[in-house]
Structures are given as C-alpha cells and as structure tokens.
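Why does residue order matter? Because the sequence determines the fold. Keep that principle in mind as you read this record.
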Amino acid sequence: MKATQTTITTRIWTRAMNRFDEKVEAACLRRDGYISRILEVEVPHLNAEIPIPNSDVAARFIVSQLDLLDRKPVSFKIPRVLGGQLDQVCASKKIPRDALFNRLVFLLATPNSAIRQLFFGGGQWTDDLIKKYSISEYLRTERDRIFYPLNENVNPFAEIREGIDLYADDEVIVKSAHPTTGELIDMVQDENNLRLPRRFYTYVFDNKQFRDVNLFGLNCYMPDWAIPGHPDQAARSKGLDELMEL
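Structure:
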C-alpha cells in the first residue's frame, strides 16, 4: 500500500521552535497535523505572492543567514501530495525550504508586538483593522471561525494579510512582464525600482527591526537590492540620494 504521508526534516531556530511547541501543547494540538493544515493554506499563497524567483545570489544569501541561527533538526509528517506541492513551489521560486519553515514557526510563536514591528512599522494595526469593519461585517466574514471553532479551516495569518492590504492602499500597481515567461504580473513603482507588492511573503526581514537579532534567514523572497553589499543595493541608495537632492 502506497504511503500517504511523507516526512520532511528541516532545521529550525531553536528558540522559536521551543516556543512554538509550548504553544501547540498548551492548545492541545497535534503539531504535525496543525502544520499540515497551515501548509495547505500557505503553499498556494507562497506561489501566488512570489511570482518571480529569487536570484541565485539571493537564495544563497538567505541560506548563509539561516546558518547563523542556532537551529535544531525537526521532522514533520505531512501528506505526500502536499509535500510534493511544497517542493515544487520552493524549487520553481528558488525559495530555501528551511527559510519557509523558520518564517512560519517564528511568526506562529512570536507575540503581536513583534508582528506589529515586522509588518506595520510598530503601528497599531489591529486597532486600525477593527475600525475598518463594523462588528456585523466582521461577524459575517468570520462567522464560521467564531461560531464553529472546531471546523477544519486553519488560517492563522488571515488577519496579518488583511492588515497588509489595509496599509497597501498607497501602492500604485503597474503591470510588468515576467522576466522569463513574459506574462504580465503586478509590480509597484518604488523610487527608481520596480518591486513586488507588499505581501506576507515579500516583506523583507532584516537585522535592523530588532536590536541584535538577525532575521535575514527568515525571508522567502529577497530582491537583490535588499542584500547588504550587493551592487544593486548601492545603486538603489545612490538613486535615493539623488532623489533627495532634487
């Protein structure tokens, strides 16, 4: 009989993994089943939010930054089909798979204060999101999760994505040709560069958001201009300096 499960072994930041395990145990959840449910939601998002692959330089940089973290090997049993889908997306987008697992575990384990800093510049995003909806609208959209908490839907990052969309109103989307397929994709004109729109997986974590904490290894996508010391970063900085002199 063909196995329906596969085992994925990854190395995850020890501090984040320990905290995640504590939260899973406190919630009386089966860790592998919970991760599987999350991946069922997140793999399609990963594929959609990152339409263009990392460069080889960016992928190598992310891996090098992961290696700076104190990590431990962790194994998850997930559905075999889901594992294949995950590997296909990571390969086609040049996403280090360990970076994805570290990003997910860290964000599942971290408090709202860190979420606020990483995605919203310290802003009170939850308050702003509440103001956007009336209570009736919220109950209507979140009815199943509120009134039927034991249903199979697991989507822990839904509110973060809502908050990102709320603050992305100022982004002017332009259509640009995909670098390899020629297909038109959404991009944003940002100073002198085209960049991907702000999405859950395109926010770049770095070594400046928290004192003495390097989160570069938790990125699933990094434009070359975000890599410290890369020529594209120097060109971007020069362009910004010139813009300020106008």
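Residues 5 and 80 are 5 Å apart (CA to CA).
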